[in-house]
Amino acid sequence: MPPQILVGTAGFSYKDWEGIVYPAGLKKKQHPVQFLAQYFDCCEINTSFYGHIRPKTGKEWCDLVAEVNPAFQFTAKLFRNFTHAPGAVLQSTSAATLNPLEEDELHAKEGLNSIAQESRLGALLIQFPISFKNTDENRAYLEKLIKKFREYPLAVEVRHATWDQPEILAQFAAEKVAFCNIDQPRLGRSVSATEYSTAPVAYVRLHGRNYKEWFQSDNRNDRYNYLYTPLQLQPWKEKIERLGEKAEKTFAITNNHYKGKAAVNALELKGMLKGKKVKAPTTLVEHYPELRDFAEEG
After folding, report:
1. 135-179 pLDDT per residue, tens
2. Is 282 exposed, middle or buried (CB count within 10 Å of its CB: 0-12, 13-18, 19+)?
3. I want to staple 42 with a disulfide (CB 3.0 to 4.6 A). Which of 8, 159, 184, 288 is the partner?
4. 190 Cα distance to chain centroid
5. Domains and CATH numbers, the chain
């Protein structure tokens, strides 16, 4: 696998990963992010979506991963006030319903800078819900948001099919902003699986294909309770390889986090890309023995 392709999970702090991804009692011995860095190339920080990263915490994470994996990178989701309406579950997100506070930009950048200053921030992910459609007002809002966070490598995830247009891709390329390629349940006007490289960084996110629960459940565990088969991952392996040939750095992130399934699929994908077995946590292999086709316990 070329070194510019980095595979990892979305998030690392999940209660249902204990005893599956993480050995029982791990937190008393080792920080989870350091444990993950032994097996993966990167991790997408999702706590930054719910609250700002404390600079001290960001620096600590960087120090922890440096001890076990000097090449490890983080990506981070932008704080939700910038991308989701306050009542996003019930209220559509648009330029009219988004109203981030002035201090949000300051606090977001303080946390991001604590990681960027350690040369470990690979990308900032700006992720919008499917209700954020391609309109004049929303394009203007997105353009302003990109300018606010221009100092970081940016990836934008839009889930509504109206964004999959040549003029949008051209604009992203002109701004050197990555169009996030996603795998999600194809329902209604959901954007289809893409393979776009519009920036020095390419970005892929695999959300799972839980059609039954994707829009029906308010519980994120239900929506992301999905395990890809190797056959389903194979086309994405090929897409990621082609993206890696175009971009300087390509991130492949698995977000089907329920009960460690994201870790399983990330390791399978990593093994496919490397063309050989990779190292995997023993507890994870015990819970998902099919992982032995792509990984060895260690």
Report:
1. 999 999 999 999 999 999 999 999 999 999 999 999 999 999 999
2. exposed
3. 8
4. 18
5. 5-297 (3.20.20.410)
